[in-house]
Amino acid sequence: MNPLPAILFSDNWNVYQKIIANNYMLHKEFSHYTREALSTASIPIKSVLDLGCGDAQLIAKDLASIGIDTYTGYDLSEAALAQAEHFLQYLPAQKKLSLGRMENLIQDATNTWDLIYSSYAIHHLSDLGKQEIMLEVYNHLNSNGLFLMVDVMRKKDQSRDAYMDDYIGGIRQNWPGLEIREQDMIANHIHEYDFPAIDLDLIDWATSIGFSVQKAPVQDDRHQMLIMQKG
Ligand SMILES: C[S@@+](CC[C@H](N)C(=O)[O-])C[C@H]1O[C@@H](n2cnc3c(N)ncnc32)[C@H](O)[C@@H]1O
Question: How far is Cα 102 from Cα 112, in angstroms, rounded to an integer?
Fold first, then answer.
């Protein structure tokens, strides 16, 4: 994998805002299921770690109603963290934003959290990297803590090439709110930086680590959310 992955954010923030505004990646549905998971969690969610937080715009809104004590965000883009500082300003909690690779930062962290959240970031890691970060997440959660993972995923037996054709075809057909040059830019980004795992593999890895896993019931086979609880 390219050693400088996925800074969709810093280069293309406006395009990502259009994707969110048009709900092309189902951010609305995932926000709904995030809020539902927060309100039904078996422990009070007071401490939150966000892996690949980007501008933290949506999670800041999702967290606003539950009253957390601390929010920590990791991202490798300085521009993203500057935006996150802005969008988190009204979230009443102690905030800490750390610049760097989430996989290294979590490994070095001595804290544990009630909720670890990650939206559209983990697919940038290799499959081994995904398994390693899931284990780190498990080890950095409090008992009965939650791991919410929103991401792009491949279908069973779907190769990365077949996924690329399918996903980029979907952009061309179903994302008319983006100009052709913006669609091209996203397609190039995906080709270079995206390594989505097969959904069933993610579920198997999580289960073998010790998580109980549920899938949010969205009718979409590319954008998914796994709701995982540490036993
Ligand atoms: C598509 S954006 C998602 C941002 C936000 N979580 C959301 O859902 O709106 C992906 C983010 O992950 C960050 N990212 C990618 N790989 C990363 C890594 N290894 N460590 C930390 N951040 C990473 C990028 O810089 C970018 O801000």
Answer: 15
- Residues making up the chain, counted from first to last: 231
**Residue 80 in contact with ligand 1 by CB distance below 6 A:** yes
Beta bridge partners of 71: 48, 95
Q: Quick check: CB of 76 below 6 Å from ligand 1?
A: yes
**In this structure, what CATH number is given to the domain that contains residue 173?**
3.40.50.150
Domain residues for the domain of 90 are 8-112+132-230
Query: What residue's CA is closest to ligand 1, atom 27?
Result: 54
The pLDDT value given to residue 69: 98
118 located within any domain: no
The residues of the chain scoring below 70 in pLDDT are 1-11
Residue 46 counted as domain residue: yes
Number of domains in the chain: 1
Q: What pTM, to 2 d.p., does this model score? A: 0.95
Pick from 54, 140, 144, 81: nearest CA to 105: 140
The predicted pLDDT at position 150 comes to 98
Distance CA 150, CA 137 (A): 14
Distance CA 24, CA 203 (A): 24
Specify if 119 maps to a domain.
no
